[in-house]
């Protein structure tokens, strides 16, 4: 897999992630997000482990202690930025929160430099375009946002940036399927602990139905077992900064779903002209990162080895 193929895989992953809003729309609001996270990650870990048990055992024999410690770290970081994202959304509307959380693309290059990793000039151009798209899309909402919500989102962006950098590093050293299994397993355990604390009834508190069960299994397979593993595979050739820029396309995909899908599937959202312009700038930033205009395969892009 070359870098272009890796970036195309990341676009596919981002497209999958953008359907989260559709799947979650089928789950009642009174079901805690920690419950959904705990259950779906557990299902994903079981599915992958059942299909690739020999591969996982082989990777554990090669590097068990280092692998498990790294997966624990990634699991903690994953849960931390998701908790902050949810807390930030409590103080911001959904669209504003989504665009604000995409500020990870601005934070990540700074995190890379702090960790003594290089950032390509082309990536800086992509970051500027994507940042401009976020600012344009937010428009007048910038002045009306609660500062506490923005600060929570900003802290979440920092943690998410560290998660992406670490995942990018570890993906180059370990088997993608094994990483995906243990990340899902540890995220499930951590989320279940929080769920148990907030809602001791746990599974008994969920209003089980065929729709909820189907949604959980679809999310577990489609978003976690498939998309998460494909993302880790792509990280072997992609860069942390480039991946983050491509992830920002999730906003554009989400806007498209809000326009084209019927209201009985997802809440109809008609984007404003500024949101459309902002999404186009984000797409432009991603294209600059993906396309090799010189027709050459560039080496040592963004992350020093």
Write the layout of secondary structure elements.
Blueprint (H helix, E strand, L loop, with lengths): L2 H15 L2 H5 L8 H19 L1 H10 L2 H25 L4 H8 L2 H11 L6 H18 L2 H4 L2 H25 L4 H23 L11 H26 L4 H8 L1 H12 L12 H18 L15
Structural key phrases:
mainly alpha; globular; 0% strand; 15 helices; 305 residues; disordered C terminus
Helical percentage = over 70%
* Helix/sheet category: mainly alpha
- From the alpha carbons, calculate the radius of gyration and give it in angstroms: 19 Å
Mean pLDDT: 84
Overall geometry: globular
Task: Tell me the β content.
Answer: under 5%
**H/E topology pattern:** HHHHHHHHHHHHHHH
In DSSP terms (H or I, runs of 4 or more residues), the helix count works out at 15
Largest sheet: none
Which consecutive residue ranges, at least 5 long each, have pLDDT under 50? Answer: 296-305
Q: List how many beta strands DSSP finds.
A: 0
Measured between the Cα atoms of the first and last residue, the distance is 18 Å
What does this molecule look like?
With 305 residues, the chain is an all-alpha fold. It is 74% helix and 0% strand. It contains 15 helices and no strands. The protein has helices at residues 3-17, 20-24, 33-51, 53-62, 65-89, 94-101, 104-114, 121-138, 141-144, 147-171, 176-198, 210-235, 240-247, 249-260, 273-290. Helix 7 packs across helix 10 and helix 7 (104-114) runs antiparallel to helix 13. The protein is globular and about 50 Å long. It starts with a helix and ends in a 15-residue tail after the last helix.
């Amino acid at each position: 897999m070359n870098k272009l193929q890796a970036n195309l895989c990341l676009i596919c992953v981002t497209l999958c992630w953008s359907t989260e809003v559709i799947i979650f729309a089928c789950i009642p609001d009174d079901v805690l997000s920690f419950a959904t996270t705990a259950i779906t990650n557990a299902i994903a870990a079981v599915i992958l482990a059942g299909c690739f048990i020999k591969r996982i055992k082989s990777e554990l024999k090669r590097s068990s202690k280092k692998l498990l410690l790294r997966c624990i770290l990634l699991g903690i970081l994953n849960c931390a930025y998701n908790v902050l994202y949810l807390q930030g959304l409590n103080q911001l509307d959904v669209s504003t929160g989504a665009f604000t959380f995409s500020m990870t693309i601005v934070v990540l290059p700074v995190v890379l430099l702090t960790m003594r990793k290089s950032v390509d000039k082309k990536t800086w151009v992509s970051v500027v375009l994507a940042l401009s798209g976020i600012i344009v899309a937010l428009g007048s909402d910038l002045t009306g946002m609660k500062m506490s919500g923005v600060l929570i989102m900003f802290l979440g962006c920092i943690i998410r940036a560290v998660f992406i950098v670490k995942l990018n590093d570890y993906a180059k050293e370990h088997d993608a399927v094994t990483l995906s299994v243990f990340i899902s397993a540890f995220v499930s355990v951590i989320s279940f602990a929080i769920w148990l604390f907030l809602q001791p009834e746990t599974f008994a508190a969920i209003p089980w139905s065929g729709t909820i069960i189907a949604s959980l299994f679809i999310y577990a397979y489609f978003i976690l077992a498939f998309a998460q593993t494909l993302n880790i595979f792509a990280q072997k050739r992609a860069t942390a900064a480039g991946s983050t820029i491509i992830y920002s396309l999730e906003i554009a995909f989400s806007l498209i779903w809000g326009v084209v899908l019927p209201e009985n599937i997802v809440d109809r959202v008609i984007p404003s002209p500024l949101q459309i312009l902002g999404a186009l700038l984000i797409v432009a930033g991603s294209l600059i990162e993906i396309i090799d205009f010189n027709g050459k395969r560039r080496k040592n892009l963004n992350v020093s080895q």
